[in-house]
Prior knowledge:
The structure holds two protein chains of two kinds. Chain A is mainly alpha-helical.
Amino acid sequence: xxxxxxxxxxxxxxxxxxxxxxxxxxxxxxxxxxxxxxxxxxxxxxxxxxxxxxxxxxxxxxxxxxxxxxxxxxxxxxxxxxxxxxxxxxxxxxxxxxxxxxxxxxxxxxxxxxxxxxxxxxxxxxx
Amino acid sequence: xxxxxxxxxxxxxxxxxxxxxxxxxxxxxxxxxxxxxxxxxxxxxxxxxxxxxxxxxxxxxxxxxxxxxxxxxxxxxxxxxxxxxxxxxxxxxxxxxxxxxxxxxxxxxxxxxxxxxxxxxxxxxxxxxxxxxxxxxxxxxxxxxxxxxxxxxxxxxxxxxxxxxxxxxxxxxxxxxxxxxxxxxxxxxxxxxxxxxxxxxxxxxxxxxxxxxxxxxxxxxxxxxxxxxxxxxxxxxxxxxxxxxxxxxxxxxxxxxxxxxxxxxxxxxxxxxxxxxxxxxxxxxxxxxxxxxxxxxxxxxxx
Lengths: 127, 303
């Protein structure tokens, strides 16, 4: 059953969003733009290597994933709660979830688990 | 508390930092030569971490060498080469030797270097690495395992005010501040209008004074490095007129120096700016000249 859900999810999200099967989907908070398509798999915004034309440092022919995410967040008719999450600090990827269904992980709340040291820090961690 | 932290936290003085040269063969001997040039001028010196994705002596070893040579190290850590376990180990290892200032960077991609076939890591991204540093500073590893006593750390990050999306760069500053960054070294920026907007944005976000902004200027000898940065370093755009003013000058070397001085003065005038970071590609007397022209007096070396 678990494999079946993961297969269906990938069949839907692969062609539409370029899903990379990280198992902890954050599409809704990134303007429906999969950050795992960033060659550096950055989950928290663009690096400093974005080219003058807005394209990627690593793949000069591709628009920066985060420029696309920013543009969509600003301009697409997405729910306000999703837009508000754009600037949230997304936690490090849990590599154990690779290849599993993020739908299942969402409903079981498995995708919200973070290591104790991360979870304990407040939003104003260093201050 | 590091001297850099003291100055940025308890005084209103401008701080000056510099980029230490990458070390390869004869590293320690060369480190001494480089350190001698910096002695007395700088509040902190960056130990780089495989700059532009080229392997060199490690950031940890370089930071310790800088410390032992009587300068204050600022240890850069990029996300490209190591996972979170190794990053924590490097911070704790450097901390054993008294390194206190740390800067989190995403890092250039492996394709920018001379070993583009290498595996890129990026287990964490820049803001996540800042938060990880905060966790260590508060006495825990990422797992929650205790560290007693907690390492002394002064945490910084970087940002590029000149790369798109410009309006979003300030929001990234806010994110890095919330994650624990107290100072921000900026990428080289040849667009004064972009730096102005960035600093004004940081101010209107209420972050001026909370996170110390330290723009970067670079000392170059002529137009070639400007062309190189413009054509080969993603994220750095050098406007044509800035290249032309050096290229067409009767004395390109002098014109390049005066350009750097002008950018330095302009940067120091921006709101929220607490100092300047200097990258020296010239290796000549203009480093001292620049510091003197900016009103700095060389401090007596105490070591």
